Amino acid sequence: MSMLQKQAFCPSCRRPTLHQKANAEQNKTFTTGHAILSVFTCGLWIPIAIAWAIWHGMTLGTQKYHCTQCGHAS
Ligand SMILES: [Zn+2]
């Protein structure tokens, strides 16, 4: 998984540090995969895809940039 990086001020380190988080771009590929699976299974996959979307909607909301020096979430 690729990481997104940015320079940001860390309140914990009290100086600008490098922050990084997981790249959410990969999820778009998964969404396309679910769409294809739904077609191939005549819609049987849709409930699984919805459950997946809800689960990832929750985890995506918790994705934050973390300071690479102290781990502080910005
Ligand atoms: Zn820090």
Bound ligands, each once: zinc ion
Q: List low-pLDDT spans.
A: none
Give the number of DSSP strands. 3
Mean pLDDT over the full residue set: 83
Percent helix: 40-55%
Assign an overall shape. elongated
What Rg do the Cα atoms give? 17 Å
Instruction: Provide a count of the helices.
Output: 2
Please identify the structural class as seen in this structure. alpha+beta
Please indicate the percent range of residues in DSSP E strands (runs of 2 or more): 15-25%
H-E string: EEHHE
What strand order characterises the main sheet? 1-2-3
Gap between N and C termini, in Å? 21 Å
The description of the largest β-sheet is:
3 strands, antiparallel
Give a description of the structure.
The chain has two helices and three strands, in the order ββααβ. It has a three-stranded antiparallel sheet with strand order 1-2-3, with no helix packed on it. By secondary structure, the chain is α+β, with helices and mostly antiparallel strands. Zinc ion (ZN) binds at residues 10, 12-13, 17, 67, 69-70, 72.
Task: List the keywords.
alpha+beta, binds zinc ion, 3 strands, 74 residues, 3-stranded antiparallel β-sheet
Helices and strands in order:
Layout: E1 3-10, E2 15-22, H1 26-40, H2 46-61, E3 66-67
Short description:
The chain is α+β, with helices and mostly antiparallel strands.
